[in-house]
Write a sequence for this structure.
């Protein structure tokens, strides 16, 4: 990922925070036949391994899973992002349209988990998203035949992160007053999450 120094997000806890908040990622693999990508939710175990470990699963019918034996994959997590108009700056004649965004790339070699772990993995994933909901759903509500067959239809995996990089392009290359103008423009555009990220970054300046 091309990352000019003023946009670098090198703090591991900040990178992990992006993954946790934007955990519907993209897993990218390649082999002699080309590149394959799959969009899937992933759970981060931050304390497992030097840079954390990702857990996820793919449908057994998805041919992407067969590429896991070919080595390293890239997991992409996209944070808040939004268009930045030159009209938001004090001098629109010396600025061009751009895009502010936050992203994390995590690299590692997938390890297929035993089929016996499928049910536990799915239960953990459901608990993550249903646990905070009133009257949340659980796997136990499935009819017996579905509860018994569902785990066999997925391939659970883990990726111990071997390398990780983050980028937060949030107008850090602009003077403070211009950054504030961009924040106001993004507020008007309804980009609340990007505004929050920019304000947090501005407070560090």
């Amino acid at each position: 990922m091309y990352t000019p120094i003023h946009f670098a997000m090198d703090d591991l806890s900040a990178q992990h925070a992006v993954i946790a908040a934007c955990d519907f990622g993209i897993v990218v693999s390649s082999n002699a036949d080309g590149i394959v990508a799959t969009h899937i939710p992933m759970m981060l175990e931050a304390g497992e391994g030097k840079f954390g470990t990702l857990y996820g699963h793919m449908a057994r019918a998805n041919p992407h899973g067969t590429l896991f034996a070919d080595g390293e994959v890239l997991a992409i997590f996209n944070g808040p992002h939004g268009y930045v108009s030159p009209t938001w700056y004090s001098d629109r004649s010396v600025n061009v349209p751009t895009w502010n965004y936050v992203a994390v790339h995590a690299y590692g070699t997938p390890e297929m988990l035993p089929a016996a772990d499928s049910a536990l993995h799915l239960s953990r994933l459901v608990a993550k998203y249903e646990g905070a909901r009133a009257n949340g759903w659980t796997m136990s509500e499935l009819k017996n035949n579905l509860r018994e067959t569902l785990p066999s239809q997925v391939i659970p995996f883990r990726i111990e992160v071997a390398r990780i990089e983050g980028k937060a392009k949030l107008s850090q290359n602009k003077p403070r007053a211009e950054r504030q103008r961009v924040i106001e423009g993004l507020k008007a555009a309804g980009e609340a999450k990007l505004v929050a990220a920019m304000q947090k970054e501005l407070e560090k300046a």
Observations:
- The longest helix spans residues 118-130.
